[in-house]
Amino acid sequence: MKATKLTYLLVLGMALTFAATGCKKKPTPITPLPGARMGPLTDNNPNPLPSGPKYNPDEGVKTGPGGGDTTGLEQFEGMIADRAALAAETVHFAFDSSVVKSSEKSKVEAVAEALKKDPATKLLIEGHCDERGTEEYNRSLGERRALALREALAKIGVSPDRVRTLSFGKDRPVDQGHDESAWQQNRRGEFVLLHPKP
Fold it and tell me: Cys-Cys link to 104, which of 57, 91, 97, 162 (CB 3.0-4.6 A)?
């Protein structure tokens, strides 16, 4: 009787093991898309992928005047950054949002006025996030926030060619706390006025 139960349990255990592991399947080949680059990513490949902007934790993600396009940024090099000039116009965002709230639009208008007064100045917009979320997601969200502010300025007459955007994600909090009050302060877009060198 004991041998029968033992045999039954052994057979049941083997059946469950085989059912769980199943048969080995061959991998399904990837269907090539027309015009797609095929082959491994090597230095010898004649069709390399274009490299995107590099991330430097001290500089943020360079998104440029075209939002991801870094061409034409030489016009921003060597300018003098004035962080204090527009510090009071920092725009704050809702959680997980890049929409410029109606309560913040007066700040965007004040920035536009400052730029209209001095046509030689340019603008740097920095997008920031609170500590929640992954590093990659927050960099992307910071970029969307900076671009949303750039677009809001363009709608009221500021040439997008005068604006550069950067995303710092969650890397530069103004409040080191870990509560809603700190997070509200860290979800922001900052404006830095850029003056040409004399």
Answer: 91
- What is residue 158's three-state secondary structure? coil
Residue 98: half-sphere exposure toward Cβ, Cα within 13 Å = 21
Residue 108 half-sphere exposure toward CB, CA atoms < 13 A: 26
DSSP notation for 67-129 = TS--TTGGGGTTPEEESSTTGGG-EE--TT-----GGGHHHHHHHHHHHHH-TT-EEEEEEE-
**Of residues 106 and 196, more confidently modeled:** 106
Phi, psi of 143, rounded to the nearest 5 degrees: -65, -45
Element (H, E) at 179: none
Q: End-to-end distance of the chain based on CA atoms, in angstroms?
A: 100
Please give the Cα distance from 183 to 188 (Å, whole number): 10
Which pLDDT tens digit goes with each residue over 93-114?
Answer: 999 999 999 999 999 999 999 9
What tokens appear for 16 in the block? 């469950």
Distance CA 169, CA 143 (A): 8
CB atoms inside a 10 Å sphere around CB 48:
11
